[in-house]
Design a protein that fits this description.
Chain A: Its cofactor is a divalent metal cation. The complex is a heterodimer of chains A (725) and B (614). By secondary structure, chain A is α+β, with helices and mostly antiparallel strands. Chain A has 29 helices and 20 strands. In chain A, helix 1 crosses helix 16, helix 6 packs across helix 7 and helix 6 packs antiparallel against helix 10. Chain B has 3 domains: 287 residues, 2-Layer Sandwich (Nucleotidyltransferase, domain 5); 137 residues, no CATH class; 119 residues, Alpha-Beta Plaits. Classes of the chains: A alpha+beta (725), B alpha+beta (614). Strand 6 of chain A pairs antiparallel with strand 6 of chain B.
Chain lengths: 725, 614
């Protein structure tokens, strides 16, 4: 009876547990070794830590990574569901990576030490924060926080102050390029018409009496100073007399061998006025804004001998400013240097269920995410050619799965099962007597066997656990580290080949993506553990319903549908949230039949429509229906409203029923082409008609079209013949 | 708890040199005690000042409220911000002015929208701007304290939504007005309940008599009797709102029965429970118990909203610094989702807060003043210009602590009193206790000032067009232009336009709204319309303009801009938004022709909307 509800509830809990289990275990595990703080890296110790990390990564056999984010889903319906097609799964991951911030980044290089016959791990825990270090084009950095995720982090004593106060900032590659380009255009413009721009570029007006008085006073003061300079031949003249009060604000100095007046302690408005009068009344004075020795920027009025001298001075100042801005951009790269390091060393990257992590890495440190998974993985592979996911490894290798069990593939459980020293009591487990890889931890040149960071749940520790799980898993796969004199070439090890670059696109429905091709890879792996849906999900048989009354249950919907389309016509019903559901028909034809019927019912108000079994669902008048493609369109929008119905409205979908192509009568020949494209795009089953119509290729931007309902009803009016079908 | 506080204590120390005012800091742990305190303070004070710290303001330059915004578009922008960002710290300061002395009781509440009820409320997620967080960090804000120990809340609307979910415990809230129309099914349902309850009551009462214990318990079993506390109870399953009503209605017929609604996991009511009481006293006792339980639950659930309710019920005038922004946030977080129009917003707010005083507005009474939004600057400016300082008497218990937060609310109080003294308004409330407002203040209350640009632009790239003092221009004379070379300056754009057409022969101004879009002000009436017509029709007269248009130049009137603001500022570039809105217009044109009266906007930032004009 409550099957559809159950489905939803199950996916929910599964999502939550996958989030929770990661940390629950760490609190369960007893601190067995030395309780050492792991290497925390913030702004203050970033440079030395990076130098050290460079060395460790270069020597490493593999590098484990883990991220902590400010959230996972921007709306409940953005959670991963089993009825999400792989392109929708990617869109949901993309949305998550674009909206949320990474607050902690764990990097843990592992190196095989042949002498001690053990791995040496160097766990690093970077606090990062998207602080805006360079002034862009007015857009400010913004990120979303999921309240429950922050609570989760707080539960494990995440230090938010360390993150905001001391977090390392970063610039992605594309942000850096953009900033340099902006700088380029800024200074190119200025050099071409420097003087003219300078003369009339700024327009400050003297509005109030105070301004005028102040400007007059400044003018007198500056001219007096200039006169003094000329009189004394450029000596260290100080302003005297009636300007005594101001003299601490104005001091004569030298700038690039020119006498100059330092202007201190004035408001920006006053400075603007000074700039104005300097430029207006003194041909041989230049107002510049330079970085002084103390590195704080200060305004100067500089005396120049001639126009050419003045121009050359301005050029010099510009060049300086440009250099300074470039340095600033370079400095703003910050944490991305770690990513660049990992990328340039081309080491094997190990993560645990890490597709979302990789999407974050790409979005934050490389470039905005492409719109399809294929484009993303091919771009990603150029930076990180070898990635291995321990979750995939544990689930797809039958031997490993036997050890950890179905429920033990979460990181901390797997770590507990595979890597914890065997307690005497647990000698009965499968692992008893099996050899294990010894992992030693090195923090700040100190080595600890059996290291445990305590109960802290942090990216650095998670990365360490991931690496440990991976090294034990390698051993179980039969990779013998100790027999080799040097390190094992893991990247080309044949026993790992079938797992390398295979990641879970979505853990909920077990879809695996191959990073080399961007295609699903479950079949090629030939594993038995891939989840199978019962009943099988057929996307083309699905319709999307939204605007549903919140009390309507899956069973009610099913009953209504079965009354109309016959028993067995509905395979399953999946709830997206309380306002929306996907209904899977047993046959693809029923999709178009339903949409036509829905449209007719919505239009007519005669007794037959009112008494129609489906009117129980549609009685509110705000229920909308469309094919599965609309679900994708709605997911691809950057907007995230809390309820799916509001989301659909925000995306701009406000027609009543999106019909299939056949339903369009001949009377709508002169409709907007845009409208046509939308319909065609939305209906995959009408490919032949779609091809004849112009511009069927992209529909992303068309989500913006609004249609008044009346107009739509006219245009969609189906002919009688089609109705009787 | 072993919090790692080393960083934040450092941060606090860094700011120790500032003037320290004792502001009571309130978190989850001392909330209930502070609630009682502040309640007394509010009732003993004449005004309440509020001020808060939010996680963001505007994400693109044109998202902030500009002088060209009308009341409506300003509201849309404020709404957009209020819906996305979060309040992390809320300072409340009840104060009075007695003998030109300011007596203030500042409290600073740390808020976090923690989901205490596990129902996804008050907020599933919120946006943060890193610049705002960094600025808060510079003031020494303790994010750990906020997230770990912040007080949660529920808005009025959320509360009524959850009430169904938690279930109304107290029977007093189960007021059911009998519905006249009953279907056959309904009558059957009621009849069944009636007979079942009758049998059950009989079974319960009979059990006192000398009946076989076995039979009595069997009877109870059959009738489905359970025990609620020490009293017998009976559960009646319901599956719709209507059935709940019917069940409650039917149960009213039984004098000894107290009905309860049992919440379902998630939402709704699963069953109605009838509890049998032994006498009238017993019934009263049970009802009191239930009321008490509900009150406790209320406090736990409502959290900080209780403070807002206190301010509202006290009817004290609320003093804020930027009323439109502040009350958009307050409305959206603590009252209900923001309505679609400014008018609805005003009337909805007026019911809750009848008197709102905006210091920004009072400041404008004195004269044009550049940095209105920077309060310390405003205070020092006023102190310099107008003699006579204000005595501040701050009462707080824990003065030994270093309190770095919530000082702004004291600045608001201070500024308010100062402004009152300059404007010769007596802020002292007469002792008669009738009026909550000093007689001269109503004139200044409930005015929303939409224009508050808090830009502190550096001196270089600041080309503004501020013409005259309060020169006003109808929005009909504004044209939005985009599709030109990105990053062009207003001056260059003006030069570019200058001799392209006759409409540019008279006085006009150009102002950049962001790097993609500019607004052109035609000071000659009718020229804007004319220009739009030319762009639309494509009958180009000059080649220069043709060049611009073929280069992608587009233009739209104020209506389009208004629609962009209304639709929720989805994109960061205004040009993209206007493009999108234009596409929509093309589709809509012919069906919708909006013929509304055009409000006048003020080219200077002096527009006010007076709530009392409603």
């Amino acid at each position: 009876m409550k099957r559809s509800y159950l489905v939803r509830a199950l996916t929910r809990t599964r999502n939550r547990t996958s989030l929770l289990t990661r940390s629950l275990c760490s609190s369960a595990s007893q601190p067995s070794g030395a309780d050492v703080a792991l290497k925390n890296v913030t702004k203050s110790n970033f440079e030395p830590a990076l130098a050290e990390l460079r060395h460790h990564v270069r020597e490493a056999d593999f590098v484990a990574v883990d991220l902590e984010m400010t959230g996972v889903t921007s709306a409940p319906w953005r959670e991963s569901f089993e009825f999400d097609r792989s392109d929708i799964q990617y869109l949901k991951i993309k949305d998550s990576a674009e909206k949320f911030a990474v607050v902690q980044f764990g990097v843990c290089p592992f190196r095989w030490d042949p002498h001690s016959r053990s791995f040496v791990a160097h766990p690093h825990n970077f606090y990062i924060f998207p602080r805006q270090e360079i002034v862009g084009d007015g857009l400010s950095y913004e990120f979303l926080c999921q309240t429950s995720s922050l609570e989760f982090l707080a539960k494990y004593q995440f230090d938010f102050n360390a993150c905001v106060y001391e977090g390392i900032s970063y610039l992605s590659r594309s942000q850096e390029e953009e900033a340099l380009r902006r700088l380029d255009s800024l200074y190119k413009d200025d050099s071409s018409n420097a003087s003219s721009n300078f003369r009339n570029g700024v327009e400050t007006q003297l509005i109030s009496m105070a301004d005028i008085l102040f400007a007059e006073r400044m003018k007198n003061m500056v001219s007096e100073w200039r006169a003094g300079l000329l009189r004394e031949g450029g000596g260290g003249h100080e302003i005297q007399g009636n300007l005594n009060g101001m003299s601490q604000k104005f001091q004569t100095t030298f700038f690039h061998m020119h006498p100059a007046l330092v202007v201190n302690g004035l408001t920006s408005r006053q400075l603007r006025l000074i700039k104005l009068i300097t430029e207006k009344h003194f041909q041989d004075l230049a107002y510049v804004y330079v970085t002084g020795e103390t590195s704080s920027r200060q305004p100067l009025i500089v005396y120049t001998d001639s126009t050419t001298d003045r121009e050359s001075l301005m050029r010099e100042v510009k060049a300086c400013q440009r250099k300074e801005a470039e340095t600033k951009i370079k400095a703003a790269i910050g944490f991305r240097q770690v990513i660049d390091l990992l990328s340039s060393e081309r080491k094997l990257i190990v993560g645990h269920n890490c597709f979302l992590d990789l999407a974050h890495v790409y979005n934050k440190f490389i470039a905005p995410l492409p719109s399809t998974a294929e484009e993303f993985v091919s771009a990603f592979q150029t930076y990180f050619p070898h990635v291995i996911d321990t979750k995939v490894l544990l689930n797809l290798d039958d031997a490993l799965l036997r050890i950890v069990g179905k429920g033990g593939t979460s990181l901390s459980k797997a770590f507990g099962l595979l890597c914890r020293p065997i307690a005497p009591s647990s000698s009965s487990t499968v692992l008893a007597g099996k050899p294990r890889v010894i992992v030693e931890v090195e923090v700040d040149d100190q080595r600890f066997p059996n290291w445990n960071s305590g109960a802290k749940h942090e990216a650095g520790y998670d990365a360490f656990m991931t690496g440990c799980v991976f090294s034990q898993a390698c051993l179980h796969l039969g990779i013998d580290f100790s027999s080799h004199a040097a390190a094992v070439d893991l990247v080309h090890n044949e026993k790992l080949q079938k797992y390398i670059n295979h990641l879970y696109l979505s853990w909920v429905n077990g879809d695996i993506i191959d990073l080399k091709t961007g295609k699903g890879a479950a079949e090629s792996l030939g594993s038995t553990s891939v989840k199978r849906h019962h009943p099988k999900i057929v996307f083309s048989n699905m319709i999307l319903l939204w605007g549903l009354p919140s009390k309507l249950r899956g069973k009610d919907i099913k009953d209504c549908f079965c009354q109309v389309f016959g028993r067995g016509s509905i395979t399953s019903i999946y709830h997206l949230d309380e306002t929306a559901a996907l209904v899977q028909f047993s046959k693809a034809e029923l999709v178009s039949d339903f949409l036509i019927l829905k449209d007719t019912l919505g239009r007519d108000n005669d007794p037959i429509s009112v008494l129609h079994p489906l009117s129980r669902i549609f009685e509110s008048g705000c229920v909308r229906a469309a094919s599965y493609e609309t679900y994708k369109e709605i997911c691809s929008s950057p907007v995230s409203e809390l309820l799916f119905t509001d989301q659909a409205k925000a995306v701009g979908i406000n027609w009543n029923t999106r019909l299939v192509e056949q339903a369009i009568g001949s009377e709508n020949q002169d409709d907007e082409t845009c409208e046509k494209e939308r319909k065609i795009n939305a209906i995959p089953i009408c490919q032949d008609q779609g091809k004849t119509s112009p511009g069927t290729s992209v529909s992303d931007t068309q989500s913006s079209c609004h249609f008044p309902t009346d107009e739509l009803v006219d245009s969609f009016y189906p002919s009688e013949a089609q109705m009787s079908k | 708890m072993p919090f790692r506080r080393s960083l934040c204590t450092q941060a606090a120390a860094r700011h120790r040199r500032r003037i320290q005012w004792p502001v009571k800091q309130v978190t989850k742990s001392n909330f209930s005690e502070a609630l009682a305190e502040i309640k007394a303070c509010i009732l003993n004070s004449d005004y309440v000042a509020v001020s808060f710290k939010q996680t963001g303001g505007h994400s693109a330059p044109w998202h902030k409220i500009l002088p060209i915004d009308t009341a409506e578009t300003a509201y849309f922008k404020a709404k957009h911000a209020a819906e996305r960002f979060q309040i992390l710290q809320f300072a409340v300061c009840p104060f009075s002015v007695k003998a030109s002395k300011l007596i203030a009781h500042p409290y600073n509440f740390h808020l976090f929208p923690r989901d205490e009820l596990k129902v996804g409320m008050p907020s599933y997620s919120f946006s943060c701007q890193s610049s705002y967080l960094t600025a808060m960090a510079q003031e020494g804000f303790d994010f750990n304290a906020c997230i770990y120990n912040g007080i949660s809340y529920l808005s009025k609307a959320q509360e009524s939504a959850t009430n169904v979910q938690i279930g109304h415990l107290s029977p007093s809230s189960c007021t059911v007005h009998s519905s006249s129309v009953h279907s056959v099914a309904d009558s059957l349902f009621t009849e069944r309940i009636r007979s079942r309850v009758k049998n059950w009551i009989r079974a319960c009462k009979d059990s006192n008599k000398t009946e076989d214990a076995l039979i009595s318990s069997l009877r109870k079993l059959i009738s489905g009797s359970e025990v609620y506390g020490s009293r017998p109870s009976l559960n009646i399953d319901v599956c719709s709102e209507c059935q709940i009503k019917l069940a409650l209605e039917t149960l009213k017929e039984f004098v000894d029965v107290v009905p309860l609604q049992l919440p379902k996991r998630g939402a709704g009511v699963q069953a109605v429970r009838a509890v049998l009481t032994s006498s009238q006293e017993d019934k009263n006792l049970l009802e009191k118990e239930l009321q008490h339980m509900e009150q406790e639950q209320r406090e736990r659930v409502l959290g900080f909203r209780e403070v807002i309710d206190l301010i509202s019920t006290s009817q004290r005038p609320v003093v804020v610094h930027n009323s439109l922004n502040d009350f958009a946030f307050i409305h959206s977080k603590f009252l209900a989702p923001l309505p679609l129009t400014m008018d609805e917003f005003r009337s909805s707010l007026h019911l809750i807060f009848p008197h709102i005083l905006d210091v920004n507005h009072l400041m404008k009474e004195i004269g044009p003043f550049e940095k209105m939004n920077n309060m310390p600057a405003a205070i020092s400016y006023l102190e310099r210009r107008f003699s006579g300082s204000i005595d501040m008497d701050i009462s707080s218990q824990d003065t030994d602590k270093v309190n770095i937060h919530g000082h702004n609310v004291l600045r608001v109080c201070h500024l308010f009193v100062k402004l009152c003294s300059i404007l010769k308004i007596s802020p002292e409330v007469p002792e008669d206790g009738q009026s909550h407002l000093s007689p001269s203040l109503p004139r200044h209350s409930n005015i929303f000032n939409p224009c508050s640009s808090n830009s502190t632009n550096p001196i270089e790239d600041d080309v503004r067009i501020w013409t005259g003092n309060s020169r006003t221009i109808s929005i009909n004379n504004l044209v939005f232009l985009w599709g030109f070379e990105s990053g062009i300056s207003a001056r260059s754009l003006k030069d570019l336009l200058c001799d392209t057409h006759d409409v540019f022969s008279e006085e006009f101004d150009v102002r950049m709204l962001d790097r993609t879009c500019a607004v052109v002000v035609f000071w000659t009436p009718g020229f804007a319309e004319c220009f739009l017509r030319i762009i639309d029709s494509g009958e180009i007269i000059s080649t220069k303009l043709t060049g611009l248009i073929s280069g992608g130049l587009k233009a739209a009137g104020y209506e389009t801009y208004k629609r962009v603001c209304e639709s929720g500022l989805r994109k960061s570039d205004l040009a993209d938004c206007l493009d999108q809105a234009m596409d929509e217009t093309e589709i809509l044109s012919g069906t919708v022709k909006s013929q509304q009266e055009q409000p006048v906007i003020y080219w200077n930032n002096d527009e006010m909307i007076n709530l009392n004009d409603l």
